[in-house]
Design goal:
The protein is an alpha+beta fold and about 240 residues long. Helix content is about 30%, strand content about 30%. Keywords: Nucleotidyltransferase, RNA-binding, rRNA processing, Transferase, tRNA processing, tRNA-binding.
Length: about 240
């Protein structure tokens, strides 16, 4: 029995609320259960120095967790002088996931930065961030097209992400913190709307997992991301 009484293949309640940040070109408040992440997409009219003159633009991401996103206050990373290794890993993952479905040649000499700020954490913050970041990026591109800054939609596909794990011997979908902290295996899957695999992260916390368990987690992740992509489509309709 899962702590939430969900079935093994059930997502938490998911919401995608657009246009929540007045000044951002695109924004989305995404909720996976009690995990809430504010994603804002900001346009810069210049590409990174190493891309200038190449005819390509760039999409990148930053990730942070607010001090009271968790049960106890955590120090802001800016006060420590640099982001933690975990933060760097997550923001690079978000950036890679968004670039995997973006035609960078369609945004020449421009950069979009998607900031993902965790307001409340209850497991799955990186997967929620990726799912909400896609919506914010979509709306940023729509904003640019409405002003004739670009002529075509740079997005080639949807991208969404979900966690899976082995909890009490059973593969389950979309772990909340209580499950995540006690799971035998913790994994994250980033998939496109067409079913392509962008990234898989999986770690055995206790006993090593089997190939059969990995394939079952992938099956759960595919079904979960299909539902997330359907919610993205509903949100932008």
């Amino acid at each position: 029995m899962r702590p939430s009484n969900r079935a093994a293949d059930a997502l938490r309640p998911v919401t995608l609320e657009r246009a929540v940040a007045r000044y951002a070109e695109g924004s989305c408040l995404v909720s996976f259960g009690n995990t809430k992440v504010l994603c804002t997409a900001s346009l810069e009219e210049r590409a990174p120095p190493w891309l200038r003159g190449s005819g390509r633009g760039w999409v990148t991401a930053e990730y942070s967790m607010l001090p009271r996103a968790t049960h106890e206050r955590t120090r802001r990373e800016v006060n420590s002088g640099k982001p933690s290794g975990r933060t760097q890993e997550i923001q690079r993952l978000i950036g890679r996931s968004l670039r995997a479905v973006t035609n960078l040649s369609a945004i020449p000499d421009k950069q979009i930065t998607v900031d993902c700020d965790v307001i409340q954490a209850d497991g799955g913050t990186r997967t929620a961030a990726i799912t909400g970041a896609w919506v914010a990026l979509h709306d940023c591109f729509a904003w640019m097209r409405s002003r004739s800054m670009i002529s075509v939609d740079p997005l080639r596909d949807h991208v969404a992400a979900v966690s899976c794990g082995i909890y009490k011997g059973t593969p389950v979908l979309d772990l909340e913190y209580e499950e995540d902290s006690a799971a035998d295996t913790d994994a994250n899957f980033v998939l496109t709307g067409k079913g392509g695999i962008v990234e898989v992260q999986g770690t055995a916390e206790a006993e090593p997992f089997t190939e059969a368990q990995l394939l079952e987690m992938l099956r759960l992740a595919r079904a979960g991301t299909e539902r997330l992509v359907a919610l993205q489509k509903e949100a932008i309709a």
